[in-house]
Each structure stands twice: as C-alpha cells, then as structure tokens.
Design brief:
Number of strands of chain B: 0
Structural class of chain B: mainly alpha
Order of helices and strands of chain B: HHHHHHHHHHH
Helix content of chain A: over 70%
Distance between the termini of chain B: 52 Å
Oligomer: heterodimer
Radius of gyration of chain B: 24 Å
Shape of chain A: elongated
Radius of gyration of chain A: 24 Å
Largest sheet of chain B: none
Number of helices of chain A: 12
Strand content of chain B: under 5%
Order of helices and strands of chain A: HHHHHHHHHHHH
C-alpha cells in the first residue's frame, strides 16, 4: 500500500513539474521570441507575416494560444511542425527516440563495462600502476568537454585511421565513437565510486569472514565486495541518466546522429516551437520517469531503505 | 618526568601532523599556480597577446605552431583566416574569466538566498521555491539554455543570464538542507527565544555555518560554468560569431581540422586544463572544509 502511495505521489509530482516546464517554454517563446519573422525569411513582406500569423494562430491573445495549446495536449495532440508539410511533432520524435535511446544505452554500457572492472582493479592494488591509470582517467574524464572529445575521436579514428565513420547512423560502427564521447563523464563518476566503495568494503569484517571460511578470492570480491560497493553507483545512475540525456543533445550534433537531441537543436534554431515543446515534454518525462525508477530500485537493492523515507 | 614522557610520545604525532599539513597544501600548490596563470592570462589578455585576436592575414593562414615546425611569430600557429591562435586563446581566457567572475558569485548569492528562505520559512513558500529546483532537475539545463540562447540571441550578456539560470539550483538545494538541520539547533532556538528575528538569525547564525558549503560548491562550479559557456558557444547560441571564445574556436576549427589540427587541439586543451584545475581545487577544498559533501558529484 505504502509502495503504491509513494509511486503515485512521485508520478503526480513529475506531471506537475513537466506541466510547469512546458508552460515556461511556451510562454517564453511567445513572449520573447519572434517566430513569424524567422519563418517568413528575411525578404518577407508585411502580407507574408500576416499570413503566417493567421495560419499558426500567432495573433490570438496569448491566453487563447496557451488555452488552445493545453486543450490540444489534453486530447493527446502534441502539435504539428511549422516547417514544410507540418508533420506531427510526436511522430517525428517517435521516429528518432529509438536512436537516442540506443545511444544512451550504448554510452551507459561503455561506462559500466570499463569503469567497474577498472575501479575494482584500482581498489585491489591501491597505489599501483592500474590505480594510477584509473585515477588519471577519472580526472581526465571529468574535465574533458564531451563535444571536444568527440571531435578528437573523429580526428583520430575516422579521419586519420579511417576505421570508423565520422558521423551518421549507419550500422553499429557509427555508434562506437558517440557512445564513448557521451559515456566518458559517467565512466569517470562510476569508476570513482566503485574504487572508493571497494576500498571501504574490503576492510570490513564480513569480507574477512568470507575469506576465513575459505571462499575463493574471486567470489569474495565479486559476490561479497562488489555487490556492496555497487549501492552508491546505482544511486548516481539516476543523476547519470539525466546527464546522459542532456549530454546526448550536444553529442548528437557533433556526430550528426539522428536523435531527439539534434531534432530539438535544429527546431530551436529554426524557431519551430511546436516541435521544441513536444520534444521537451518527452525528454522531461523520460528524465522524471528515470528518477522515479531509480528511487524505486533502491528498495530492491537495499532493503534497509524504506520507500516512505525517500 | 610524566611531562617528558608525554612530550616524547607526542613528538612523532606532531611531526606526522606537520608533514601531513605540508602535504595537504602541496596538493593545492600546482592547481593554484595554474589557476593564477589562467586569471592573469584572462585579466591581461590585451597586454599579453602578441596580436589582435581578430586581425585577419589571409596569406598567413594555417601556419603551424612552433612545436610542429612553425615560426615564433605565431607561437601557436594561425587559423583559417590567418588569425594568431595564441592571441585568440588568451582572449578566450578573458571570456571564460568574465563568465566565471559574474556567474559563479551571482548564482551563489541567488541560490543561497532561495535556499535560506525556503529552508527557514518552510511551508508554502519553501515548498514552492523547492519545486523550482525540481524543475531544474527535470529539464536538461542545456536544452533550456539553448532555447533561451536562441530566443535571446547570441551575446556575452545573454550567456551570463542563461548560465545564472542554469547554475543556481545546487546552492539552493544544499543550503536548504543545511538550513533545515540548523533551524532546530539550540543556538538558533536560543536566539529566537531572546527575540532574534528571521533576518538576524539567517545573517548571524545560519549564514556563518553555511559559508563552507557554498564556497566548496562555488569552486566546483567554476569548471561547470566554463564548460557550459564553451558548449553554448560551440552550438552557436553563446557569444556572437567572431568572439574568441574557446568553444567558438573549436566550432570554427572543426571545418578544417585536417589541414590545421592545432586550431582545434589548443582551445580544447586549454578548456581541459582549466576545468581540471577547477575540479582539483574544488575537491581539495571540499576535503579540507566539508568532507560530507564527498558524494556531491
């Protein structure tokens, strides 16, 4: 009972937050922006401007525009692009969402697969060569701007060595470089936590007990040590998920990756506000959902945490 | 006799402590030196730069830097318009420095005030203010920043406004949490009992206990702010075109990175060194002032 109560409350909170976010975007774009001028182009006549305002209802009072927008949203209509044939915004996002999802998963997979073993190895041989390398990677990963790292990877692996494509989304090869550029920051964060968690846990009594009862060292490290050290890692995955979605925007631009992030940037630049609004709703909703799921997952990983106390 | 024994016992402990102290500050000395270099470069870019950063000499385009066989008159080489990259990097440091000295204190003041008031008042005001930070969490800051940037148009002033909106929330969240825990402490209750008002208590009792947290977050935010400005300029919604910002230099150089790799390498390395330094100083300060913040990032 308490579980569902918590779940529903969190979901409602997320809905309220998304509503405020999208209202902000709507109002700021209508109040500060000047989309009709941009849509009509530099040589537009007065008549062109009036025609565009008519067509998109831009000369209605703001409150009417806002009301229409909300009414459409309630009916499940996320609006239509102001560009070309006026494609349905939610359908265009749907087409690209899978690409962004793929990129995010690949980046997360890269981060976990490299960071966890490296973090464990660094913790077990503290002060050794691996530890030194791991810590160096962690500070570099935290300091390097993702978009610059992406360009450097393109420079070496696509231009100089001609091993991988410079961009686009053709086959799994084109996923490698963007995933590394996007996952670098998460890798640094996960590795730091794994390392410090392992160092702490390997000193505890239950590890000594596990060793004393003759378990193989591998089992001690993985089943007893790592499992414990992973708790804080799961905690930051929620923040990490938000960071990955935010980071994907710029990485998609660098690699010409056809995802939601690049769609948003393109739409923002072209003042295609219905598209921007719809995409921001989708992204904000997925981040909020990810946060709720991570909160829930603590419960399964660490039974000491009662859901109500979150 | 007893006194002597205590002294002999204490000596190695004191010695160890002295050595540890020395080591603590040694860890800070290198990042502090780099930070000083950055500040001097930024503040005196106009004097230090060998050339005007926007002086175009087309015949001199794509001159390699000295460490790649170039001449000393363009120590870091030139870009596609023959502009001196060293001068542009120095002026880029100035852009970053301006952004840091305006945004970091500005966001700290804004966030601290919001956190203090919402933590102290609680109730409706407090909750409303905290929902504001939730919004910041749900919306990828970069999206809102790009959106605002395109609506407001590219200018350094707009970048500063956008970054203020982008970065105030960590202060607010931490300060609120601290304020809530301080609110019930005896010295605050005592002050209230003798008639201390809200503003008085916040200024005299809460704020001095919050300074450490705020200073640590400020230091850690330096790198975030610099990278954010670079990202915005990279996407074309930051500083106006032509401004020598490190992010903008990277965008321009990506079109000719095969002919002139140095034009894209050098601003990126500058960014990396500065954000690395900021992180090191932040970590050091956090460990020294407030180790509880270790899980901040």
């Amino acid at each position: 009972m308490q579980f569902w109560h918590f779940f529903v409350v969190r979901l409602l909170q997320a809905v309220v937050v998304i509503f405020i976010v999208v209202s902000l975007v709507f109002l700021v774009s209508r109040l500060v922006g000047n989309p009709e001028q941009f849509l009509a182009g530099p040589d537009a006549t007065e008549e062109d401007l009036i025609e565009i305002e008519e067509r998109f209802g831009l000369n209605d009072p703001l409150i009417v525009q806002y009301g229409n927008f909300l009414a459409d949203l309630l009916r499940g209509d996320f609006g239509h692009s102001w560009m070309g044939g006026g494609a349905s915004a939610i359908a265009s996002i749907g087409d690209r969402a899978w690409n962004t999802f793929k990129l995010g998963i690949a980046a997360l997979a890269f981060a976990i697969v490299t960071a966890v073993p490296l973090g464990v190895a660094a913790a077990l041989r503290r002060g050794g060569l691996v530890d030194w390398l791991a810590r160096f990677l962690a500070v570099i990963g935290q300091a390097v701007p993702g978009f610059w790292l992406g360009l450097m990877l393109i420079f070496f692996f696509a231009v100089r060595l001609d091993l991988l494509p410079t961009g686009g989304a053709a086959g799994w090869q084109s996923l490698i470089l963007p995933a590394i550029s996007l996952g670098m920051l998460e890798m640094a964060a996960i590795m730091r936590l794994t390392r410090s968690g392992m160092i702490e846990v390997m000193d505890t009594d239950f590890i000594r007990t596990a060793r004393a009862k003759g378990l193989p060292e591998r089992t001690v490290i993985v089943r007893h040590g790592l499992r414990h050290a992973m708790l804080p890692v799961v905690t930051i995955l929620g923040i990490g998920m938000g960071r990955l979605i935010a980071g994907s925007v710029i990485i998609e631009v660098v690699f010409a990756w056809p995802g939601v992030g690049r769609l948003i940037i393109d739409s923002i630049v072209r003042s295609d506000y219905p598209m921007v609004q719809a995409a921001i709703i989708v992204l904000a909703a997925s981040i909020s959902l990810a946060n709720v799921l991570v909160d829930l997952s603590y419960r399964f990983i660490d039974p000491r945490i009662r859901v109500g106390s979150l | 006799m007893a006194h002597d024994a205590a002294a002999t016992l204490a000596a190695p402990v004191l010695e160890r402590r002295r050595r540890r102290n020395w080591r603590r500050y040694a860890g800070l000395s290198i990042p502090a030196a780099v930070a000083l270099v950055f500040v001097v470069c930024g503040a005196f870019a106009g004097v230090l730069a060998p050339d005007d950063p926007n002086f175009i000499v087309l015949p001199d385009r794509f001159e390699p830097p000295v460490f790649a066989g170039g001449a000393w008159d363009h120590a870091f080489g030139t870009d596609d318009l023959g502009r001196d990259i060293l001068s542009r990097i120095l002026h880029g440091a100035q852009v970053s420095l301006i952004v840091v000295v305006t945004v970091v204190p500005g966001a700290a003041i804004l966030g601290t005030l919001i956190g203090l008031v919402s933590g102290w008042r609680g109730g409706l005001t407090g909750n409303l203010l905290m929902r504001l930070t939730d919004i910041q969490l749900a919306l990828p800051s970069i999206l809102f920043a790009v959106f605002l940037g395109s609506v407001l148009g590219p200018s350094l002033r707009n970048v500063i406004i956008i970054l203020l909106i982008w970065t105030w929330s960590p202060y607010a969240r931490l300060v609120r949490a601290e304020t809530i825990s301080l609110r019930e402490r005896d010295f605050v209750i005592a002050s209230r009992a003798v008639g201390g008002g809200g503003v008085w208590i916040m200024r005299k009792h809460l704020f001095p206990n919050l300074v450490n947290v705020v200073v640590v977050v400020m230091t850690l935010e330096v790198a975030i702010v610099i990278l954010a400005e670079a990202a915005l300029s990279f996407l074309g919604v930051g500083v106006p075109p032509g401004t020598p910002s490190w992010g903008a230099m990277i965008t321009e150089a990506r079109n000719y990175m095969v002919q002139a790799w140095w034009a894209i390498w050098l601003p990126g390395i500058a960014l990396m060194i500065v954000s690395f330094t900021g992180n090191l100083m932040g970590d050091w300060l956090r460990d020294a002032l407030d180790p509880r913040l270790r899980n901040l990032r």
